[in-house]
Write a structure and sequence with these properties.
This protein has 231 residues and is an alpha/beta fold. It has 6 helices and 9 strands; from the N terminus they run H-E-E-H-E-H-E-H-E-E-H-E-E-E-H. The radius of gyration is 17 Å and the shape is globular.
């Protein structure tokens, strides 16, 4: 069998376009049950039920690590993970997304559950954060395919030059330094692009936690800590 990295450069766009097409078939709000909760997913918004990385996010948001903690959910999409973290006992959750359709969708899910501890903010990565705002846990599900998005929906899948992931990894050392001792970041990636060269930051301790096989790719969840806080 050929190494998947040998064939993906020629076929990855086909795979991604198939996932995007599934999203485009959503013309009306859909209701999805997960862990006994009824969520709404609107058109033009990333659905964790249709994409491999979304399944990792759903799994992560069910971990018993959020009780009484403050969470930053970067790329929150429909807000399902943000809501699940709050429903698991998080003290505060801030969900951030660049897609205005996702913001409205996430706000609807938050309202439906009456989650006053969840704030949804529109913007890119850490831009919507206030000065001095700190978190115990940061989770990021960013687009990990190099390409130019044509619309708001495609921003969940394509990122020119992988700029979002690069920016995330560049800013994480400063952000974790500002936060309380023991703050942890989690980043969801796939094997569709070579990311090793991005993990050269000497201040960071980056550990592969879990890998799941989904459809045409493997999805990895990385744990990112600041070395000097955990030595």
């Amino acid at each position: 069998m050929r190494n998947i990295m040998e064939i993906l450069p020629h076929q990855r766009n086909v795979f991604i376009e198939e996932v995007i097409e599934k999203h485009r078939r959503i013309r009306d709000p859909q209701h999805k049950m997960h862990l006994g909760y009824n969520f709404v997913i609107c058109p033009n918004v990333f659905s964790p039920f249709l994409a491999p990385s979304g399944r990792m996010g759903l799994s992560f948001s069910a971990w018993p690590i959020f009780d009484n903690r403050t969470i930053l959910d970067v790329g929150c999409g429909s807000g399902i993970s943000s809501c699940l973290m709050a429903l698991s006992g998080a003290k505060k959750v801030v969900g951030v997304d660049i897609n205005p359709y996702a913001i409205k969708n996430a706000e609807e899910n938050v309202r439906n559950f009456g989650l006053g501890c969840v704030q949804i903010r529109e913007g890119n990565l850490f831009d919507p954060l206030s000065r001095g705002e700190v978190f115990d846990i940061i989770y990021a599900d960013l687009p990990f395919t190099n390409g130019d998005p044509n619309d708001e929906l495609e921003k969940a899948f394509y990122d020119p030059g992988l700029s979002s992931i690069k920016c995330f990894l560049n800013k994480i050392p400063v952000l974790l330094t500002k936060m309380q001792r023991g703050s942890i970041a989690y980043l969801c990636l796939s094997n569709m692009e070579p990311f090793d060269y991005l993990f050269q930051e000497e201040e960071l301790n980056i550990k592969l936690l879990i890998t799941i096989e989904a459809d045409f790719m493997k999805i990895h969840l990385y744990e990112i800590k600041l070395k000097r806080c955990f030595e």
